[in-house]
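Q: Could you predict the 3D structure of Beta-lactamase?
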Amino acid sequence: MSTEPMCLACGMQYAAAREDCPICEDERQYVPQAGQQWTNLAELRESGTYTPRIEEQGPGITGVGSNPGFAIGQRALLVRARSGNFLWDCAAYLDDALVRRVCDLGGITGIAISHPHYYTTMVEWARAFDVPVYLHEADQQWIGRPDPAVKLWSGATLDVADDLRLINLGVHFAGGTVLHWPDGEEGRGALLSGDIVQVIPDRTHVGFMYSYPNLIPERPQVVRRAAELLAGYRFEAIYGAWWDAIVRTGGFEVVQRSAKRYLAHVTDEA
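A: Sure. Here are the predicted structure tokens for Beta-lactamase:
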């Protein structure tokens, strides 16, 4: 069983023991008041605390995670695309039972992750399913456990299949990425956004932040570029990072309206 150290606060797995967690020390995350603490997958599995959680989130999209959630608590999304199952983002907890549940759904052909907060145990997932993990090269410095399965990509877009496209928006992190699935929502399109485009309680809008826990707004020029990039795509739904954090209808209009509102608040743009 895996004994590589994992940050108890953010879930990042590192190749070797260390005293600090760069992810938590960055201003987009935080070191808990109790201080830096460590665990590993073997300890988490042996604790008996966590069990697999698999739930439908939308047409052809299945949530994959644990109950309770570990560390930040995000769930991954299994996209049942025409080209094959593809895993978006990464849940920090993984055990044999969760691997079997995903295999029962048809396994996965690859993994892509929106930003470093969700890199966590990506190498464990890649090895369990013998698939590549696609990360934007702008966030290479945050990789805690290098591995040949990690495939860095560059530029604004990458087609990981003929029906799945990664789009680098640069929100939250320089490599902040979303996944566009044009066949999603029965052909109306789906955007899987992690918290690069944050699904908020008011489902008529989305949010854009540089640091969510520390309430640092994203730079206007970054949000403006993100909206311009997404203007070239159509999508009905937006799937965020959390269970049931979903904009079900009008996703394209929600993003454009939200970017306009954001820029009006942080600049002189109306």
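Q: Anything worth pointing out?
A: The longest strand covers residues 51-58.
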